Amino acid sequence: MYKLVIISLFFVSCQGNATQVNSVTNYSDEFKSLMADTLLNGIQDKILEAFVQSLIIKNESKLNFLDTGLKELYNKRKKNLVLYWSSYLKFYKSIYYLSVEDKKSAEKALDKAIDQVEEMEGKNSEDYALLSMLQGFSFQFSTGLKAPFIAKKVNNNIELAFELDSINIRAYCVSANNDFYTPEKYGGGQVVEKHALKAISLPEQKIKNDYLPSWGKEEAYE
C-alpha cells in the first residue's frame, strides 16, 4: 500500500466502456452548479499548496482553513464533489500528522475521510478510486486481524471504479500501487506494471476542468 515516503512525493478520464448507471453522480454536471463557489476552482492545487505550507511551518492551520471552507460549502450545497475534495484534503492532513509523529491524529483524519466517501450516495468511478486509495493508506493503522478485510475492501472498490469507467486514470494508479505493496504470496505483483503503464498513457482528465481531480499520472511513475 501507499507508504508515507511515496505519498509525500505528491507535492515536490478519452472515452471507454464506462458503465452508465442512473444513480451514479456525474461530477461534470455537479461542477456547473458549483461554479459560483470559487473555493473549488483549482481546489486540488490549493490542497497541495496548503499541505506543502503546513510541512514548512510545521502547523496544520493552512489545511484546517481549507477544510473549514469545504465543510461550510457542503453544508450549503450538499454535493458529492465537495465531499470528495474534503476527503482528499483529510488524506493530506493524515500525511501531515504522520510527518510530525502524531499517529493518533493521522488515523482520525483518515478515518473521517474514509467515512465521508463510504457514506456518499451515488458514488461514481472517481469516488471509488479515492476510497480505495484511502483504505489502502489505512493499512499502516490496522492490526494484523483487520488487514485481510481492508485488502478485500480495497480490491472491491478498485473493481467498482473500473466497472463505472474502464479508463479512469486514478483507478489504474491506485490499482498499480495496491498491487505493488501487496505481498506476492497474497497475490501481489500481478498487474502493477501493466496498470502503471496504462495510467501513464491516459490523460489526467478527459476534459480539462479545474474543479475536478487530475492526480494519478505522476503517482503512477513512482
What does this structure look like?
The protein has 222 residues and is mainly alpha-helical. It has a single domain (4-10, 27-221), classed as Serine Threonine Protein Phosphatase 5, Tetratricopeptide repeat (Alpha Horseshoe), CATH 1.25.40. Helix content is 63%, strand content 0%. The chain has eleven helices and no strands.
Extended strand count: 0
Structural class by secondary-structure content: mainly alpha
The percent of residues in helical segments reads: 55-70%
Q: Give the overall silhouette.
A: globular
Features:
222 residues, mainly alpha, Serine Threonine Protein Phosphatase 5, Tetratricopeptide repeat, globular, disordered N terminus
Secondary-structure topology with pairs:
Elements: H1 4-7, H2 27-34, H3 43-57, H4 61-77, H5 80-99, H6 103-118, H7 125-137, H8 147-164, H9 169-181, H10 192-201, H11 217-221
Helix pairs in contact: 3-4, 3-5, 4-5, 5-6, 6-7, 7-8, 7-9, 8-9, 9-10
